[in-house]
Amino acid sequence: MPLHLQCFLMMLAICMGSPMVRADEQPPSFDHVILISVDGLRPECLQPEMASAYPALARLARGPHTLQARCDPDISITLPNHCDMITGRLAAGTSGHGWLKNEDPPARKHGGTLHANKVDYVSSIFDVAHDRGARTALICGKWKFVLFEQSYGQDAGGPDKVAPDNSRDKIDLFVCDSEALSQSDSVLATIRHAAATNQKSLTLWHIPTPDFQGHATGWDVSEGSPYRQSVATVDHGIENILTQVDADAHVRGRVAIVLTADHGGGVPAISHVDAEAPINFTIPFLVWLAKDSQACDLYGMNPECRSLPAASQRFVPDARPPIRNADAANVALGLIGLPPIPGSTANAQQELRVSPTPHHPIQAQAADKGAPHDS
């Protein structure tokens, strides 16, 4: 490329406020992405020594990942953290999504939308994907997630500003089902429907089982515990996805998965409300790019934009942010070649690198050994 053209492109990138990305560092583009949130998943369940117990989760960890991601810095409960994942915003502050409650929302007409609460429209992953012709789905295990159906359905979703007009209803399929295996069938149906109609697809899949068990008996990660058994049901659901995708030539190699959690748990013993407890705020963040590879460290791949906190820290003061579940929204969109969410603040320029490149070699993640444990 001529030098004058390189200079022009560099100046254009600076003027547009986005980082200059080399062509060989562009992330791969997929047709379908599944953003999986495993409610209350402790990162210890993805340690290498647990691979035989959870083969599907272990398979997802054969790629870019960290077991030292963080939930929202101010709140470690379910619904606000899923608002983070859907909007690419944290909860607090003038640029935050502002939803702090964790119960079933009021009806739409009584203020049960993110927009009414914020007194401004809050864009989401569903807006970006649906307005650009992708099929969208929200498969969840708790009825409180109706907040998102109410916020992005026909009566409250924003106008489609990207021709052609795909309507205000941003979520094509909304399913509330607490069983991971039947949930996985709904996820597969979305992907297959999109493939049959030559669409891309974006699915948010919320699996509630570990959180249910944690609130019932605690977040005990010792072998044979009820909590560990609940994670096995998650693994079976994900295994169904991987098996079916591998067997389907129409989608094999075209599906990417991002997996994270809304929070951990165990402080207090059958809860996770203490936002300063490491076993509550420490979560996994995995990216599976349609094939297995050698595990690599997301922090090691992103030294210019993310800082790895100590295991006891929610963040590193006066430093770059840690990897958070809120980053997942714009990671998921980038994997299917779509732009970031308007108004988002987490990974707002899709700067978080999730694909190994020659300049960021694959390496083992030493930081995983710092995952928190019960005291």
Structure description:
With 375 residues, this protein is of the alpha/beta class. The chain has a single domain (28-370), classed as Alkaline Phosphatase, subunit A, CATH 3.40.720.10. Helices cover 30% and strands 12% of the residues. The protein contains twelve helices and eight strands. The chain has an eight-stranded mixed sheet, sandwiched between helices. Helix 6 (146-152) links the parallel strand 3 (135-140) and strand 4. The protein is globular, with a radius of gyration of 20 Å. Residues 3-24 and 358-375 have low confidence and may be disordered.
Main attributes of the structure:
alpha/beta, 8 strands, 375 residues, disordered C terminus, Alkaline Phosphatase, subunit A, disordered N terminus
CATH architecture designation = 3-Layer(aba) Sandwich
Q: Which regions contain 5 or more consecutive residues with pLDDT less than 50?
A: 3-24, 358-375
**The CATH homologous superfamily:** Alkaline Phosphatase, subunit A
| Cα shape | globular
Distance between the termini: 58 Å
CATH level 3 topology: Alkaline Phosphatase, subunit A
Spatial arrangement of strands, main beta sheet: 4-3-5-1-6-7-2-8
**Number of H/I helices:** 12
Mean pLDDT comes to: 90
Task: Count every beta strand, where a strand is a DSSP E run of 2 or more residues.
Answer: 8
CATH level 1 class label:
Alpha Beta
- What does the main sheet amount to? 8 strands, mixed
* Helicity, as a percent range: 25-40%
Number of domains: 1
Radius of gyration: 20 Å
DSSP strand content: 5-15%
**Structural class designation:** alpha/beta
Helix and strand element order: HEHEHHHEHEHEHHEHEEHH
